[in-house]
Amino acid sequence: MPSVKNLQLSLAALLLLLVALCAPVPVHGAPADLPETSGEELQDTGDFKRYKLRDIADLLLESITRLRDEQFQRDFGEPVGNMTNYDPVRTEMPLISQSDRCRPKNFSAPRCLKRIYAGLRTYEGYLGYLEKENLTTAQLTDIRQWTTSLLKIIKDKVDDTNIQSVSSPPHDEPAWKQRTFTHSILYNLTLFLRDANKAMRHMITKGFDYVRTENKGSKWLS
Fold this sequence. Notes:
The protein is an all-alpha fold. The protein has a domain at 44-161 and 175-206: Growth Hormone, Chain: A (Up-down Bundle). It is 59% helix and 0% strand. The chain is built from 6 helices and no strands. The chain has helices at residues 4-22, 39-43, 46-76, 109-132, 137-155, 175-206. Helix 3 packs antiparallel against helix 5 (137-155), helix 4 (109-132) runs antiparallel to helix 5 and helix 4 (109-132) runs antiparallel to helix 6 (175-206). The termini are far apart. Mean pLDDT is 77; it is low at 11-45 and 214-222.
C-alpha cells in the first residue's frame, strides 16, 4: 500500500494541476488599449480629407462611365466603340484645357482646383435633366451624393466668389435631340472627371498650394 507521504505528494501535484488549468491563458500579441477617435475628429484631419477626395472622385468617375455606356447602348442601339461617330452632334460642355493649368508642366493647384469646382457646379446643374431621362435611378442617386460631397470638400479650398456655372438643358426638344444631349452630358463629364481626378491626385501628392512655373514636365502617368 502507498505510504501516507506518497499520498500527500500525489494530492499536492493534483492540486497544482487544477490551479494551472483554471488560470487565465495570456493572449500574446494583443494590442494595447487604443484611444477612441470619433468620426468627426477623423474627418477634421487633413489626410482624411485628401484621401476622401480621391476616393469619392474615383467612385464618381466609375459610375458616370458606366452610366454613359448604358445610356448610349440603350438610346442609340450601338456598341460603345461607335461613340466617336457622334462627335459632330455632341453639345460642347466644360472640359479641362491647357490654360486651366491642371497638367504637370504648368501645374497650379489653386487655379486648377477652381476650374474643377466650376465645372462640377455646371454638371451638377445637369443632374436633374438626367433624372428625367429614365436612367438608372440608384446610380443617379449615388452620383448626386458624390458630386455634392466632392464640391463640399473642394469648396473649403477655393474662393468661389466669382465662379459662375451655367447649365441650360433643352426643353420640348425632339426625342433624338434629348438623347443626344443626355449622351453629351455623360460623355463630356467622363472626360472632365478623368482629367480632374489625375489633377487631384497630383495635388494630394504635392499639396493644394503647389504651383509649378517651369515649362517642362512629364506626361500624366496612366
